[in-house]
Amino acid sequence: MRAASGRAKDHGPDSTGSRTKESEDFGRYWLRSWLNHPALPVLITLLVMSSAIWGFAEIADEVLEGETASLDRALLIALRNPDDLSDPLGPPWLEEMGRDMTALGGIGVLTLTTLGVTGYLLLAQKRRMAVVVLVASLGALAVSSSLKHSIDRPRPDLVPHGSVVYTQSFPSGHSMQSAATYLTLASLLCGLQTRRRNRVYLLGLAVLVTVLVGMSRVYLGVHWPTDVVAGWIAGSAWALACWLLALWLKREGRVEPDVAVLDEPRATGSPCLPMSREKVFGDQPDDNSK
Known about the structure:
The protein is mainly alpha-helical. It contains ten helices and two strands. The chain has one domain (39-259). A hairpin with a 2-residue loop joins strand 1 (80-81) and strand 2. The longest helix has 34 residues, at 2-35.
């Protein structure tokens, strides 16, 4: 009896430790399953879009009430020569570079880019992806124009304009359309990449171009800073909406999955690797493929 009791005591801590390990393993499995759930990116995107819409509405409300006037004036004048407000800070080549940057968000460049990408997608028989690109660019133009007419904010009158303008000021059309177009194109290209650094590079490049376009608008004196911030927010939200449209098309099987399987060897479990259709969409593998 005493020996049996001793053996029971010896097995007690091992049993407790085993149950603890099983609980930890179950917790990790549950967390991994939740993080890999196909609905999680959609939920995060919807949350970000809702926050962007709320932020845009708040900025628009502050602009209409005149609460941002002092900040806008201070930032705009800070980019000018104090002795001559018609002269932007920096050498002449910097001002010329500002015009080059602002052209990247102009109607001409964005139209050429959109038509070029759309033409390629049509040749590649990806008609629905071509529709997504057109919606991203033309839709952003339509929304931007509607917002400009609705809010009807005058252009800055503190400094001479370094670029020709012919529409209202809020939000910045260059900022919004460049964000919507370049971010959408980058997201579509990221779907073809299997390495995280490639995706980061593409998205980073799109963000950089968008930021430079917006900053050039303030530097040239054709937009208030809050116009540009609002344009960035609205354009990013529109790009996210287009990304959701592309994701829905893939989920319905109306376009081919983005990521192709690489033949080169790669480490298992890397977060930057492509997932199979079963993992992305939760489809069951075909029995005939086994």
